[in-house]
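Student: Hello, beginner here. Can you help me understand the protein record under this note? Any guidance would be welcome.
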Amino acid sequence: MSELIRDTDTGLAWRVVQPAPTTPTALLVLLHGVGGNETQLAHLAATAGKDVLVVLPQGRLAFGPGQFGWFRVAFTPNGPQIQPEEAEASRTALIRWVERLQREHGIAPARTVIAGFSQGGIMSASVGLTAPERVAGFGVLSGRILPELETLLAPAESLRNVRGFIGHGMHDGKLPVAWAERADAWLTQLGVEHATRLYPIDHTISPAMQADFEAWYHSLLGKV
């Protein structure tokens, strides 16, 4: 991976998976979960392809040495309680940053996929469902879709142009599988074409989930 690159406009820092293509034709953005860092999903870049620019951003909030996140969250008996203003700041920063990368490298939104694990998956869905003009698809790996997004969703005609992937563990003790079921139902209601896959795992990314996600984004990028 490259050294950390920082953007003063959005406040984001990121690494680029090496060797980076000289003239990339596609962009894959991978977002880590809460308490992780930008290296957490580097293994998902292994099969991205030589012409794909893979970037690994670091969460905007520091929680400890090498521990970052996109917003603060408390897990309560009534479900996760987030700091919505932090989630919103991260959402808008990511959208501006993705646009910058596309502009600098000449990559079309139709050749861009954003995905993440847990809180990173949450942010990926937040970008894809509110700014579908910026990405071809979003992946939610052991994450959820924030109910708080409802008032921010893009118009229905725009959402028909974005694709989604939901991968979740049936035994997830952090974000129960009901969140994946809700996401599946909501995306169906919104008319967003998507794939939902469940696995006999806890809150993690299994080899099977990784393989299904990789097949999904290769298929998606191969259509355009």
Observations:
- The longest strand covers residues 52-58.
- The CA atoms of residues 168 and 181 lie 9 Å apart.
- The helical segments are 84-105, 119-130, 156-159, 178-190, 207-222.
